[in-house]
Specification:
- The protein is of the alpha+beta class.
- It has a domain of 119 residues.
- The chain has 3 helices and 18 strands.
- The strands form 3 sheets. The chain has a 6-stranded antiparallel beta barrel with strand order 2-9-12-11-10-13. Strands 1-18-14-15 form a 4-stranded antiparallel β-sheet, with no helix packed on it.
- A hairpin with a 7-residue loop joins strand 10 and strand 11.
- Helix 2 packs antiparallel against helix 3.
- The protein starts with a helix and ends with a strand.
Length: 370
């Protein structure tokens, strides 16, 4: 009796244990399945511009704030520029001095020309006086001494004009050389003024586009270095920037439908279309970059908003599927009798896997133990 009781209790224990370890089973079924590629990303505007500094210094003022609407060439920041301002003033002084020196040679030539004109007038008068005295002397109406004085004055005037004319020619040749050097110096000085003024302009940071101030990265009084950003300006339509893995990019094509979930609108889904696929791998994001455009832009949207998206890459009608959780080693399943069977799979997501061959709708399969 004791042995029979023990055997009975043992069989009951095995039955209870077997019942507790009973595994879940299912049969393949037919479904319409959608194939999608997951992507993360963010929102940006089609035309975004970062205002950066090409000089180093202390920020004197930032007359813009986030959300401000500004126009092209609007002032975004002013960097302290006392040293550069002094260099501009010094260049202007050098340039003005070069201009004065260049004009001095012309002035000296003009003075000689005035003397030549005066000498010509004097020569005309002395010639007329000489000819008059010559005529009077022929008639013995004036003394020889007076005639000689008139003749002497006439010859002196001719010599004076000749000297002045020679002086002008020599001065003109000399001053042409001098003037050429002075003009060259003047041009160089002007280039230096323009260069220094251009450098001074670099201390006033302006935007090259109209738009909205998205971000301001610096504050008044802070040090800014070359290449550092001060502000970001955005304009144009809002676009969706998506990052797609290397495994999935081959499935993505233009005009495919995208279902977008914005972090700012967690309870809404927005439809969009793929509009651009970048041709190269982005080494910063370690993914491929894809752009999409909203079918209808959300009423309230913010540049930089993070998002998740599913890109619809295809669909299959009335295909045989099993729950993905029933797969073993990618393409094996366990039958009800414990045998493993190899199957050929097609599309797959976290919920369902397409069965191309290896199972029928009558086969019962067992969910593997976790």
């Amino acid at each position: 009796m004791k042995i029979s009781r023990i055997v009975f209790l043992w069989c009951m224990a095995l039955f209870i244990l077997s019942s507790c370890e009973q595994q879940e089973t299912t049969m393949p079924t037919r479904k319409n399945i959608e194939d999608a590629v997951f992507a993360s990303g963010y929102i940006e505007q089609s035309n975004q511009y970062t205002v950066s500094s090409s000089v180093e210094g202390i920020i004197q003022s930032i007359p813009v704030s986030e959300g401000d609407r500004i126009t092209k060439n609007a002032l975004v920041a002013v960097i302290k520029s006392d040293v550069q301002s002094n260099q501009v003033e010094d260049a202007i002084v050098v340039y003005n001095n070069a201009v004065n020196n260049a004009s001095a040679s012309t002035s000296q030539l003009q003075q000689i020309q005035i003397k030549i004109n005066q000498a010509k007038e004097q020569l005309t008068l002395d010639k007329e006086n000489y000819e008059r005295y010559k005529d009077l002397r022929a008639k013995n109406s004036v003394s020889q001494l007076d005639f000689e004085k008139a003749e002497l004055q006439y010859n002196a005037s001719k010599n004076n004009l000749l000297v002045l004319q020679n002086s002008y020619e020599e001065a003109e040749y000399y001053y042409k050389e001098v003037e050429s050097n002075l003009k060259l110096n003047e041009k160089r000085s002007l280039v230096q003024v323009n260069t220094q003024q251009s450098l001074l302009d670099d201390y006033r940071l302006i935007t090259s586009i109209s738009g909205t101030v998205i971000n301001v990265y610096k504050k008044q009084g802070e040090l800014i270095r070359r290449g550092e950003a001060v502000a970001k300006i955005g304009s144009g339509a809002f676009i969706i920037k998506l990052f797609v893995s290397e495994d999935d990019i081959i499935k993505v094509n233009k005009s495919q439908t995208v279902y977008v979930h914005l972090n700012t609108n967690p309870n809404e889904t927005f439809k969009a279309k793929i509009s651009k696929i970048y041709p190269s791998f982005n080494t910063t994001q370690l993914s491929y970059v894809v752009e999409a455009q909203f079918d209808q832009v959300p009423t309230k949207i913010f540049s930089g908003s993070q998002l998740q998206a599913n890109i619809e890459t295809g669909s299959s009608k009335n295909v045989l599927v099993i729950p993905t959780a029933y797969l073993i080693r990618e393409n094996y399943v366990t039958l009800e009798n414990g045998d493993e069977r190899t199957i050929k799979t097609g599309r797959k997501n976290s919920d369902w896997t397409e069965v191309i061959s290896g199972l029928s709708e009558e086969d019962l399969i067992v969910k593997p133990k976790i």
